[in-house]
Amino acid sequence: MDVAHWPFPGATPYQDYHDMVVTKENGVVYARLNVPERLNPLTPGIRIGLKRIVEDVRWDDEAKVLVFTGSGRGFSSGADVSRDAPPGYKPPETRWELEDPRYAWIARLRALDKPIIAAVNGVAAGGGLALALMADIRIAAQSARFISVFVRRALIPDNATTWLLPRVVSTSQALRMIWTGDDVRAEEALRIGLVDQVVPDEELMPTVRELAERIARGPAVTLELSKRLVYQGLTRDLYTQTIVESGMAQIVSETEDVKEGRLSFQEKRPPAFKGR
Description:
The protein is an alpha/beta fold and 276 residues long. It has eleven helices and ten strands. It has two domains: 20-216, 2-enoyl-CoA Hydratase, Chain A, domain 1; 220-266. Helix 4 crosses helix 5.
């Protein structure tokens, strides 16, 4: 793993997380928020961990897919505003932390070319909803609920919710969720495009694992540049997009995986992509 640009010296990638359990299996990194007794609020440890996981995955060539989920009955309840809750943020300990804007990690996560899946296993409220929105694909358990809870506390949505939500659902649906703070159950979330699939609770992680590992077996360079093209294309005109597509296609054409794709087709066998 290349850590030349990794901004967390003294910590081992994928280890030493607080309030999160991070594992890597078959090219898939699973980041599980792990404060189940409080429905996984965004504790200081989790907030730091979310910043770290972006860099852990970015610089790890063996990490092909990132999956977010929660322990217990909740995905994430967002900020902990209970009476005895500790401060949500720790004071910065390094110059990098001092200079880094509070939500800059969201832009870095969004710019991560590797596929991201949210396995929403229960309530996703406030910042937890925002975390689910940061994923490329959202698969929900039947027990999942999505709540833009900010209005209940007279707060402006944060964690980039006002940018992410209308890009996932329609503007009107986004405003309805923001203005009412109503619970959106899993089936309603599927209807409005907030999630891509709803499965029984017990099938959530097997379903996500199967999809994540299937994607991880794919041609990594092609997958990552395709993701970049799709998101950047949302802000480009059509003509410019075709030019950029041609440039990306040229890059991909030089990879070993393209040659393997062609050869496996000719030999009538499954491809064995290497990610280069």
